[in-house]
Design a protein that fits this description.
290 residues; alpha/beta; TIM Barrel; eight-stranded mixed sheet; two-stranded antiparallel sheet; 10 helices; 10 strands; 38% helix; 18% strand
Length: 290
């Protein structure tokens, strides 16, 4: 497929196999990644040919990322066949990772997830975005926070690793308090091994962009975004989580291990909040600025 490929930063050195085009849901108001694409999945025959072809070019491949937007939504028997083929054609394979929605994970039993894990399915990337159901409903997310938490716990019970993403500023200035409190609550329940915080960026072709232009959605200021992140981290009670907020959308790059580095992260954010360098009236300079 000759279409843009989206993958998590951690998959930079993985072999990307695009077995689908676009996202089967594709209705979130903030996401512009697949807006111009009609969802399409390769047939099993096409997938077999792709795997065989790529194994000839990359015989020593150890890591594979299956694209696009929610490969986990495929039926169990299809995922089973795909993972079996990957293990057969890539003798050095150690892990297969993919994007997964909460409902896609929930559609599989614990036993099915364990079988997929035994075939080297390793990390599921899930966009929690927010732990507040009203915010999720407003941005037309397909799952509730409770459903995503339950799905994450089920995946981890099966031996899979969860990498969870949250979107700072998704509640706007009107709902930053609820967003921070309920997102931390959901994360505390799920206990993901990996946690990434990105700042929501309104991009053209999305409903969020239109809402910002029309004044229906008030973006957080630079100061507000940093304060929101401070509030989320302050309420986190993680047992063993790698935390990153080093995406280009963030005001300041941060990373550390929780709980070990919690106080250091909070101190860095405190220093920034009191430094008087943050814009208190606007989002400041952001990628794809309006």
């Amino acid at each position: 497929m000759n279409n843009p490929l989206y993958r998590p930063p951690a998959e930079a050195y993985s072999l990307i196999l695009q077995i689908e085009q676009g996202c089967p849901y594709n209705k979130c108001t903030f996401c512009g990644m697949y807006k111009d694409l009609n969802y399409h999945s390769l047939s099993m025959g096409e997938i077999r040919s792709l795997i065989k072809q790529e194994s000839q070019h990359n015989p020593n491949c150890r890591r594979i990322f299956l694209a696009d937007g929610d490969v986990m939504r495929k039926p169990f028997d299809k995922l089973l066949e795909i993972l079996t083929l990957l293990n057969q054609h890539f003798p050095h394979l150690t892990r297969v990772n993919l994007y997964a929605s909460g409902s896609a994970i929930a559609s599989k039993s614990v036993e099915q997830l364990r079988i997929l894990h035994s075939l080297k399915l390793h990390t599921l990337y899930m966009g929690l975005e927010s732990g507040d159901d009203q915010i999720l409903k407003r941005c037309n997310k397909c799952d509730t926070a409770t459903k995503m938490v339950e799905a994450g716990l089920k995946a981890q019970e099966s031996g899979l690793r969860m990498s969870v993403m949250i979107l700072l500023g998704l509640g706007g200035s009107d709902h930053t308090h609820e967003h921070a409190i309920n997102t931390a609550k959901a994360l505390n329940l799920m206990q993901p091994r990996l946690l990434s915080a990105l700042r929501v960026i309104p991009v053209k072709s999305t409903e969020l962009y239109d809402d910002v232009v029309a004044g229906r959605f008030k973006m957080l200021s630079e100061h507000g975004v940093v304060k929101e992140l401070h509030n989320i981290i302050g309420d986190l009670d993680m047992q063993s989580t790698v935390f990153r907020a080093n995406h280009g959308s963030n005001v300041i790059p941060l990373e550390g291990r929780l709980p070990r580095d919690k106080e250091r992260l909070l101190a860095e954010l405190d220093n920034l909040i009191t430094s008087n360098v943050l814009d208190c009236d606007s989002p400041g300079k952001i990628p794809n600025q309006l």
